[in-house]
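Please review this one:
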Amino acid sequence: MINYRNMTIADYDAVTALWQQTEGVRLRDSDSRSSLGAYIARNPGTSFVAEIDSEIVGAVLCGHDGRRGYLYHLAVAKMHRKQHIGKKLVELALTAIERQGIFKVMIAVNADNFSGADFWKHTGWKPRPDLLFMEKTADGKPNA
């Protein structure tokens, strides 16, 4: 049986191990224990894990800035895919964030993550051809 619950910082080691094993998920300095703990504290009740027999087999980070929501690092262990775990994690995150008054959520998919892009398109997400995603990184923090 699959158990879904809110992610806590106590899940850090298991969740980061899952992310490290998931193609298309790139970890950065901003995925440190302290950064993730701060993110979860700023966005309570919006990030989730899926467990089977107390083992984390899926995870998603979700939060918002007061205007738009953001999903990060959706991952499901390879041996547990095709069981709708990813879809359920996203549904839980979207429901939680909508309860906080956020009705538009953004994701970024690595350009070479074709299976990830297929998942998102299959579950109703649409590319935004009118947007160009850009970033600026602080000096001396290339892996931020």
Residues 85-98 form the longest helix (14 residues). The chain is about 30% helix and 20% strand. The chain has one domain: 2-122. The mean pLDDT is 95.
